[in-house]
Amino acid sequence: MRIRPATIADAAVLADVHVRTWQATYRGFVPDGYLRSLDPVRWRPFWQDRLRRPEEGTATLALVPDAGDRPVGFVSFGPSRDDAADVAAGEIFAIYVLPEHWGTGGGRMLMAAALTALADAGFGRATLWVLDGNARARRFYEAGGWRPDGLTKRDESRGFPLDEVRYVLDLR
Ligand SMILES: CC(C)(COP(=O)(O)OP(=O)(O)OC[C@H]1O[C@@H](n2cnc3c(N)ncnc32)[C@H](O)[C@@H]1OP(=O)(O)O)[C@@H](O)C(=O)NCCC(=O)NCCS
To answer: Are 137 and 131 in contact (CB under 8 A)?
Structure first.
């Protein structure tokens, strides 16, 4: 596996990785009807936009197998988007690996590359939000030294509640 910058040519594949991984991860946490309604084709414009016109300081890296160039995972990151964010904080916005590649070290490679980029950009710490009940992701973050900082929030933007906890990592 290797890491490379995601390009606009990856938009459709990243939309597919995003939706398929969401469906596998959040089954049981969110209504089945909502999961079934997720459609990679409808997510494509979001990815085209994110890749064509990334917000200031943000980036997306792709995880690709040694053979071939089709991404099987991605990480997006940049300055923290939290209200009243500490300017020293970078944020991991999303890290997703297709379920058939879980546990093979790809997530770790993506995270390491994102944290190096955030540290190189001058951020002294990083934060991320994870669903309270997402045990696999929480175990993954904690193995990498991330710790919950006590902040929680409820996201109701999808019409059902998602409770999230914030994690923080010192980059110095
Ligand atoms: C979370 C996710 C990105 C991890 O990716 P992955 O490729 O499965 O992770 P890896 O194979 O690199 O790491 C797996 C193992 O290494 C451990 N690990 C990760 N980073 C480590 C580090 N820096 N040091 C030591 N161990 C580490 C993990 O705890 C894990 O151990 P486990 O198998 O005992 O649980 C992936 O499971 C995923 O896409 N999940 C669904 C989407 C999701 O939940 N994203 C996060 C939303 S906030």
So the answer is: yes
| Number of separate domains in the chain | 1
As a whole number of Å, the CA-based R_g of the chain is: 15
153 lines ligand 1 (CB under 6 A): no
- Residue with CA at minimum distance from ligand 1 atom 25: 143
- Give residue 29 CA to ligand 1 midpoint distance, Å: 19
The answer, yes or no, to whether any atom of ligand 1 lies below 6 A from the CB of 23, is no
Atom 2 in ligand 1: residue holding the nearest Cα: 107
Kindly report the pTM of this predicted structure.
Answer: 0.94
Q: What is the pLDDT of residues 154-165, one digit of tens each?
A: 999 989 999 999
Return the closest-CA partner of residue 160 out of 36, 72, 27, 29. Answer: 29
What CATH code is carried by the domain that includes residue 100?
A: 3.40.630.30
What confidence score (pLDDT) does residue 86 get? 74
User: Ligand 1 in contact with 140 (CB < 6 A)?
Assistant: yes
Q: Which long-range contacts (CB under 8 A, 24 or more apart) does 21-27 make?
A: 21/96, 21/97, 21/98, 21/99, 22/96, 24/99, 25/99, 25/134, 25/136, 25/137, 26/131
